[in-house]
Amino acid sequence: MKFDLIIAALLGIFLFHGFCSSEKAPNYSFMRQATTAPEISHYDYIIIGGGTAGCPLAATLSQNYHVLLLERGGSPYGNPNITYLSAFGSALSDLSPKSPSQRFISEDGVINARARVLGGGSCLNAGFYSRAGPKYVSSVGWDGKLVNESYVWVENKVAFQPPVRQWQSAVRDGLVESGVVPYNGFTFDHINGTKIGGTIFDAAGRRHTAADLLEYANPSGITLLLHATVHKIMFKTRGLSRPKAHGVIFRDALGKKHKAYLRRGEMNEVIVSCGALGSPQMLMLSGVGPSEHLKAHNITVVLDQPNVGQKMMDNPMNAIFVPSPVPVEVSLIQVVGITRFGSYIEAASGENFSGYRSSRSDYGMFSPKIGQLSTVPPKQRTPEALEKAINSMNALDAAAFRGGFILEKIMGPISTGHLELRTRNPNDNPSVTFNYFKEPEDLQRCVNGLKVIENIIESKSFSQFRYDSISLPALLNLTASAPVNLLPKHDNISVSLEQFCKDTVMTIWHYHGGCQVGNVVDQDYKVIGVDNLRVIDGSTFNYSPGTNPQATVMMLGRYMGVRIVNERLAEEESN
């Protein structure tokens, strides 16, 4: 009995702290190109997608089992456009085939981006790190203690306190002055009021991504293949009451086909962690989805599952650009106002945020190249239209880029859409519709958030960073007239905040859904109606967690890894 307790204690230490033989990024001995992989291989776990959830999940499972992690993109290490805060936006603006960012345009007309790199969205985003609230954790049925332990496990590698300088301090004080209280100081926790959140950029401005969590991995228990594009999950059906996942087919950068199979063992699994676009797409390509849609693409139906690809959501974001009469620091998201009416207020500043500092053709987060073209008819989404918008920004004086954006993102959202395949090629983007502001409550939250932004701009705390001569209606018109999207503008945009929300809607890349808990997967993230297959990533969310989801997506990878290991060890011990 005493021996069993000692073993259990040691396993707990290993699970929560990792083995001493772990390696430091970027020198992972287990990371290699898929071209080096054998034609056939066998593993206990096969994880499709080395992103924000896939990396911590693989690192955790590797402590006890043999894991294959397949990433369709390359390594983030050595790419300055990913690594440095000062280059933010450059990776998102890179439209080349080898870019870590793959642009897609929703049927709503909003240009968006999905990650194509080890570390996933944590390699591309603005870096803000904030946990989900206790109510969220309780509502989804997670174990609070393990959730907190998993957050800490993530934070020990990738989360930092940002240096808050003048402009961000003015936004912070303006929020408090506007009634977004109390002021909660620096915290990772989700608390109503104003706070300084965490960041995945360290004090030197270097980004730390989910790929860094592979430092926790057991090098002898994991194989990581880059540029490994999975084409389908393989299922056994003959003689079985339910389809059973037993491997995957993937191709390397040269197009050569490889097969990876699960080893014998009832608890071995394929786990899909491809993100909110990639996971429902992968299930459909593998024959799990709406049968009529699959048949239309000549895909053999393994399981008719009409909920795959449904309830796609993207939190709409709207912003007001505030020109500054004085220079401002370069800052990404640091301060957040968590209101009681369902809107989150955040801000970012500096010339490089418009791309002016690094490249007059980038335009950072709010670039028409990155993805803020809203409800443009497909025939108008042309390179010429983009070039015209960029040229109009080129003509502006450098002083026009001095200032910052104060933005609001609504919680939820309530409005939902759907995803469908365009082709059978996993490298092609699926068709996705988000239906921004379809539900009136979403629109009202946007309006209420913009009212808080207006109060911040007019606050005493923010006075040194605005021109007294520019009125609020003028700021609204200035933002709406800038080439941040190509949506035809309405005449009443400066007097109707509802119209401003609709005409200037943007993405903040927090899209989710398509494989939700309760619809496609169960509470254990197992695909309903199929054996030995799970989905673990943001596609399972019914609601976006906290102000910014990346902390919770990383936590979920760790959390589910620990749960899977513990449940398996308990099962093996009972047998």
TrEMBL record:
<feature type="binding site">
    <location>
        <position position="117"/>
    </location>
    <ligand>
        <name>FAD</name>
    </ligand>
</feature>
<dbReference type="InterPro" id="IPR007867">
    <property type="entry name" value="GMC_OxRtase_C"/>
</dbReference>
<dbReference type="InterPro" id="IPR051871">
    <property type="entry name" value="GMC_Oxidoreductase-Related"/>
</dbReference>
<feature type="binding site">
    <location>
        <begin position="549"/>
        <end position="550"/>
    </location>
    <ligand>
        <name>FAD</name>
    </ligand>
</feature>
<feature type="disulfide bond">
    <location>
        <begin position="446"/>
        <end position="501"/>
    </location>
</feature>
<protein>
    <recommendedName>
        <fullName>Glucose-methanol-choline oxidoreductase N-terminal domain-containing protein</fullName>
    </recommendedName>
</protein>
<dbReference type="InterPro" id="IPR000172">
    <property type="entry name" value="GMC_OxRdtase_N"/>
</dbReference>
<dbReference type="InterPro" id="IPR036188">
    <property type="entry name" value="FAD/NAD-bd_sf"/>
</dbReference>
<comment type="similarity">
    <text>Belongs to the GMC oxidoreductase family.</text>
</comment>
<keyword id="KW-0274">FAD</keyword>
<keyword id="KW-0732">Signal</keyword>
<feature type="binding site">
    <location>
        <position position="538"/>
    </location>
    <ligand>
        <name>FAD</name>
    </ligand>
</feature>
<feature type="domain" description="Glucose-methanol-choline oxidoreductase N-terminal">
    <location>
        <begin position="275"/>
        <end position="289"/>
    </location>
</feature>
<keyword id="KW-0285">Flavoprotein</keyword>
<feature type="binding site">
    <location>
        <begin position="509"/>
        <end position="510"/>
    </location>
    <ligand>
        <name>FAD</name>
    </ligand>
</feature>
<keyword id="KW-1015">Disulfide bond</keyword>
<feature type="binding site">
    <location>
        <position position="230"/>
    </location>
    <ligand>
        <name>FAD</name>
    </ligand>
</feature>
<feature type="signal peptide">
    <location>
        <begin position="1"/>
        <end position="22"/>
    </location>
</feature>
<dbReference type="InterPro" id="IPR012132">
    <property type="entry name" value="GMC_OxRdtase"/>
</dbReference>
<dbReference type="Pfam" id="PF00732">
    <property type="entry name" value="GMC_oxred_N"/>
</dbReference>
<dbReference type="Pfam" id="PF05199">
    <property type="entry name" value="GMC_oxred_C"/>
</dbReference>
